[in-house]
Amino acid sequence: MNHARLTTLLEDGPDLLPASGTVLVLGPRADSDLSALPAGRVRAVQGFRPDHDALAARGFAVTPAPEGRGHAAALVILPRSRAEGRAMVAEAAARVAPGAPVWIDGQKTDGIDTMLRDVRARAELSGALARAHGRIFGFAGGDAARFADWQAQPLTPVAGFRTMPGVFSAEAVDRGSQLLAAALPSDLRGRAADLGAGWGWLAAEVLARPGVTSLDLVEADHAALACARANVTDPRAAFHWADATGFRPGHDLDVVVMNPPFHQGRAADPSLGAAFIGAAARMLAPQGVLWMVANRHLPYEPALAAAFREVVELPGNGAFKLFRASHPRRGAAAAASAVPPQRGVARCRR
């Protein structure tokens, strides 16, 4: 979001923001500049745990899902997913008071021009402003029926599982996760965790091993974790809305499985995966084992070697590599994050 657009919009039209009432802000990030809005009136909605916690630390009232109705105004910060963006607009339109302004802000690379055309076909636009490779525009909300067909609808990526638009790999099981699941031994046992569990497919594969006594599903995306709760009903499963890199299970684990992310927004950052490796090493018992899949070109070998005494690369394929790492190095896990960022990476996990 280019926050000068919102600031300029409200400076040029000071009457655009009602003098009282709450302002619903959908999709703000940790570093979002919301200074154009009265902080005490902002009701931020952010389901990604690190961003949620950062916004809360800044003093904003923030929830992982929209709450309340009759808001005086709403701001939608457009995500990359078209279906997710439409669902956010529908939520904003339904949750503001009749006639209250709804603004949509986004970059051209996130589809703001397409969104403008789509909204224009349904509502009269106001306060449009183009700047810094993006746009902000508004319309009068409060009419839920106008955008009812944009509300998020469940997807079925594979029989027995449901997902929602915007979560990672919402339309199909991730190929890396499939490869990892096929490599897991049938005699896997003990206390386990799935770091970055997503909507639960890999977790269900782990729980198919009868020797697994418990499984912590750790996921930072609130919407993905909600899907996992619906998809994984095994009583051995426990669900944690948390940043995996800081999660503490409360007991040593025997097994960790993971298909870690390596993007923050559009920026490729393999150090995220390295941080997952360090976190896994801290969670595991002295004889514990990490099972991990990664894109073939990512340089995770130094991080694995820094965090584990034994690292074996298993047969993978042209796109992915598999690792089995055991015997974590106590006190050395922090060194696992010392992997430099790399550009040009296409795969994204939230």
Which keywords apply here?
elongated; 350 residues; seven-stranded mixed beta sheet; 2 domains; Rossmann fold; 16 strands; 9 helices; alpha/beta
Can you give a write-up of this model?
The two termini are about 20 Å apart. Helix 5 (about 175-185) packs parallel to helix 6 (about 200-205). Helices cover about 25% and strands about 25% of the residues. The protein folds into two domains: about 5-150, Vaccinia Virus protein VP39 (Rossmann fold, 3-Layer(aba) Sandwich); about 175-335, Vaccinia Virus protein VP39 (Rossmann fold, 3-Layer(aba) Sandwich). It has helices at about 5-10, 50-55, 80-95, 110-120, 175-185, 200-205, 220-230, 270-285, 300-305; strands spanning about 25, 40-45, 60-65, 75, 100-105, 125-130, 135-140, 190-195, 210-220, 235-240, 255-260, 265, 265-270, 285-295, 310-315, 320-330. It has nine helices and 16 strands. By secondary structure, it is of the alpha/beta class. It has a seven-stranded mixed sheet, with helices on both faces.
Short description:
By secondary structure, the chain is α/β, with parallel strands linked by helices. It has helices at residues 3-12, 49-57, 82-95, 112-120, 175-183, 201-207, 222-231, 271-283, 301-307; strands at residues 23-26, 42-45, 61-63, 73-77, 101-107, 125-131, 134-140, 190-195, 212-219, 237-241, 253-258, 263-264, 267-268, 284-295, 308-314, 320-328.
